[in-house]
Automatic annotation (TrEMBL):
UniProt-recorded name of the protein: Dicarboxylate/amino acid:cation symporter
Subcellular localization: Cell membrane
Superkingdom of origin organism: Bacteria
Organism expressing this protein natively: Corynebacterium yudongzhengii
Alphabetical list of InterPro entries matching this protein: Na-dicarboxylate_symporter, Na-dicarboxylate_symporter_CS, Na:dicarbo_symporter_sf
Membrane-related topology note: Multi-pass membrane protein
Amino acid sequence: MAKRNMLRSTANAYLNFPLIWKLLIGLAAGTIIGLTFGEQAAVLAPAGDLFLRLLQMLVIPLIVVTLILGVSSLTPRNLGRIGGKVMGYYLVTTFFAMALGLGIALLVHPGRGLSVDSNGAEQAEEAPSLTDVFLNMFPENIFLALSQGDILAIMFFVLIAGFALAYMNDHEDKEINEGAQIIRKVFKTGQEIVFLLVRGVLEYSPIGVMALIAVSIGEVGVEALVPLGKLILVVVGATLLMLAFYAVLLGFFKASPIKFFSAARAPMLTAIATRSSSATLPVTTRAANQLNVPKRISSFALPLGATINMDGTAIYVGASVIFVADTLGVQLTFGEIVSVLMVGVLASIGTAGVPGAGLIMLTMAVGTTGMSMAPIALVAGIDAILDMARTMTNIVGDLTGSKLVAASEEKAAKKNKSTAEEPAGSEAS
């Protein structure tokens, strides 16, 4: 009995200890283990892989239930307005991030001092064309898309299904209307089940974070960072400037940056560990709830942002393209830089929010300039480190977008309310 009470007391103490501190402890422990044991830290890989599997297990159920509930609660008019704001924000910030990465890299020239022989280099695997990216958004078989984890195709189907359900909510046929309400109740219950599973997985997250960080640092090592340290500093510095840009936007909409980043700490650390916007989605959704972002907005903006809003990746691609040019001794023309800028922004729409996907964008951007793909191998060597910074920026951008749209909607609602009350006030007087 005493042993059982001690175990219960220990479990309660762990559960009641703030998640953010557990994540920080896991992050610090993983760093120490990675630096101490090097490649031997790979024995912890299964613990990290388990964490990734648990998070990935929740991604599609979370997208399906939250997106259908969010969209079905909107009127067609609101869906168009909110959707336009979200898409506009994502495109503008991605463009700004890409320009930021290019600009800082052009000032610093991180690749100078390194020389890469492009002779005999194999060309990287060809990235999908923008036409293919667009067509792949429309699934031929939704069940195949579900089994393959094709997020864009799943989101497209769920979006139109949610929109159809929203239409049924106001259907003139009473039976259809009642059936639509029942479906919404089923999905609402499903949402609570998924959120309960999320809370359970998050309790394991400190162990997963420790394992993932230990393995990453153990593989890369300190010495491998020396020749590429400038590139790391450029990417990290640009991401910090991007975070400052988000803070300015939040302040402009009268949203407290301090409260925002306090709520965003858990998803930021999770993103650093998992290096996946999609895998971090459950934690990001929880942070949005803490920031009082309505579910009708967060359930639309966050899953969409995890797939198409890649501010951190845009910074990484911009800086890495200049790095590649420096190592090859190539001076990019203004037209080539503009081409890289535009392709990087458009390519972000089709880049999956999973570890390493930024290399696909980098390959596409380098390909537009006609340069050799050989230096990409150097970037790939430290991709895990860069991926941590860019993924963290990606999810903060998603969360900022949902908060700004929510603030905009709240401001519009107050304005409409005051406008509606003015005639009544005038009549009373």
